[in-house]
Specification:
heterodimer, A: 138 residues, alpha+beta, Alpha-Beta Plaits, four-stranded antiparallel β-sheet, 5 helices, 18% strand, elongated, B: 153 residues, alpha/beta, Rossmann fold, four-stranded parallel β-sheet, 4 strands, globular
Chain lengths: 138, 153
């Protein structure tokens, strides 16, 4: 089993750290400004993430992290400060989390909500293309 | 089913795909395998000549190495994907995916594979947009059937 690291991001304050400590998961945990970083064996990690999703519902968002916690190649303390590479995207997405959480909370209730399809790129009709070309050379 | 997400480091997409019962194919997993591999061939990031060769599968030798390197990591994800969710106009594709040409090429690769694809846009500060974003993804993932696995090639 390999070690994995996950980022748990909260859309608003949630006492994740204390709850995880209380249940004594065999994980390394670090509290950050956006939530917590957890690291440990895959099986234990799965138990912890399942627990967090059940306990905090749609308020927690979890993703994997490539580098281990405190890795000198990424840690700000060793790189002379500044944002960690990749934090900008995370920062922008964190701003959207309250909206996403609200939508997830209403997912079951609003069964009649009509989805507005995004404009999907469609293949151009061959006949239309032919007419355009013919029009160009008239 | 395995779902490729774009941007491949996205927190929201990665979480939603996992939440709705599928496996997100993300950049972080590729990076993790690379940087935590016991046999560090080429510290600090363990990029070896083999990676350069892998990139040549997707782009010509005169393509900038930044593009080829990214494709070497992200290309296999698309090859293994059964479906894809792409966020259009993700103007902050910083970090590991901050290359416009690579992003275009990745969209092209997804389309060429012919796998079921959903293209969405990040919600602005609007509740309706957010609902549309989440519900579209939920519906797309719910409708994914095992029979529709893998695309043309």
């Amino acid at each position: 089993m390999s070690k994995v690291t996950k980022m748990v991001v909260v859309s608003s304050y949630a006492p994740i750290l204390s709850k995880i400590y209380k249940l004594q998961f065999d994980l390394t945990i670090k509290e950050t400004c956006f939530g917590v970083l957890i690291s440990g064996e895959e099986e234990e990690m799965r138990r912890a993430t399942d627990y967090m999703r059940n306990e905090f519902g749609n308020g927690v968002f979890i993703k994997e992290r490539g580098f281990p916690m405190g890795d000198v190649r990424r840690c700000r303390a060793d790189r002379g400060g500044g944002a960690r590479p990749g934090f900008y995207q995370l920062e922008r997405e964190i701003k959207m989390l309250p909206l996403i959480e609200d939508s997830l909370n209403n997912l079951d209730e609003e069964v009649d909500y009509k989805i507005h399809p995004y404009d999907q790129d469609k293949k151009m009709n061959a006949i239309k293309l032919q007419k355009m070309i013919e029009g160009m050379y008239k | 089913m395995k779902v490729f997400i774009f941007p491949p480091t996205s927190l929201i997409l990665s979480d939603l795909v996992e939440r709705f019962g599928h496996e997100p194919l993300v950049m972080m997993r590729v990076i993790r395998d690379k940087v935590t591999d016991l046999s560090l061939d080429s510290p600090p990031l363990n990029v070896t000549p083999e990676d350069v060769k892998a990139g040549l599968k997707y782009a010509a030798v005169d393509t900038p190495p930044g593009v080829r390197g990214r494709l070497a990591l992200i290309g296999p994800l698309i090859e293994n994907a059964d479906a894809a969710i792409i966020v259009r106009n993700a103007d902050y594709s910083f970090g590991c995916v901050g290359c416009a040409r690579t992003n275009e090429y990745l969209r092209y690769m997804v389309k060429r594979r012919g796998i079921p694809t959903l293209e969405v846009e990040y919600p602005k500060e609007n509740e309706e947009d957010a609902k549309n974003f989440v519900y579209s993804i939920e519906k797309f993932l719910r409708d994914l059937k095992e029979g529709k696995k893998n695309g043309r090639d």
